[in-house]
Amino acid sequence: MLRATDLRFRYQEGGPWIVDGASLGVDAGETVAIMGPSGSGKTTLLHLLCGLLAPAEGEVLLAGEPISRMPDGKRSRIRLERFGFVFQFGELVPELTVLENVALPLMLAGSPRGRAEERARAQLELLEIGRYAGRRVGEISGGEAQRVAIARALVHEPHIVLADEPTGALDHDTSELVVGALVDPAVRRGAALVVATHDSLVADATDRVLILTDGILKQR
Ligand SMILES: Nc1ncnc2c1ncn2[C@@H]1O[C@H](COP(=O)(O)OP(=O)(O)O)[C@@H](O)[C@H]1O
Ligand SMILES: [Mg+2]
Predict the structure, then answer these.
(1) Which among 8, 9, 17, 18 is the best mutation to test ligand 1's pocket, defined by most ligand atoms within 8 Å of the CB?
(2) What residue ranges do the domains of the chain occupy?
(3) Does any ligand 1 atom lie closer than 6 A to the CB of residue 53?
(4) pLDDT band, residue 177 (cuts 50/70/90)
(5) Residue nearest (by alpha carbon) to ligand 1 atom 9
(6) Is the pTM of this model over 0.85?
(7) For all residues of the chain together, what is the average pLDDT?
(8) Measured between alpha carbons, how far is residue 108 from residues 76, 81, 102, 158, 202 in Å?
């Protein structure tokens, strides 16, 4: 599904290589955790995988197509359609309700509001958080917001779900709920999941764990 080969990346010419020969393959329905200390390049790697950053060397293939070499417009469209992204702090839009937040990616992709909200509601029900639909983001807890962020990442049925320390700001029990909400639907739907994490709870729930050190991914 997603294959990255010998990726190298640095933010400034002449600066340190943040990613220095990393390779990774994830199949449909497979879940992979990427672990590594803070600053090891996990976020950078996720951004390379979805084409938000372009590698200096190596390439990222999505279903055999090199996203790293697509024109910008096509790459953005593919990112919107095929990828779902869960951020560490959810990054929901505070002015909108939970339902509107989850409907947003569908509307950005051109879906009419009614249809988008119908699918958003179904996704919230699936994650058993339908009761929050009408609430503003400021009126729910951190763990609830993170499950809303997962609903938003899954609502357009992406082929690849990328999650960046999704439990980084949560306590143990809430983390368990969030891990279930992230891993189970991804697997059930045959999406590939790559999750950057410090959390052994997340690592224990995935099929494979890779460690990012010195810009390279190694088997644990
Ligand atoms: N936009 C940026 N410009 C320059 N350096 C950056 C930028 N973003 C991250 N870095 C650096 O790249 C390294 C890896 O960062 P990051 O990918 O955020 O690691 P992690 O997610 O594992 O904490 C760090 O040294 C960080 O300071
Ligand atoms: Mg990070």
Answers:
(1) 18
(2) 2-219
(3) no
(4) confident
(5) 44
(6) yes
(7) 93
(8) 12, 10, 11, 14, 30
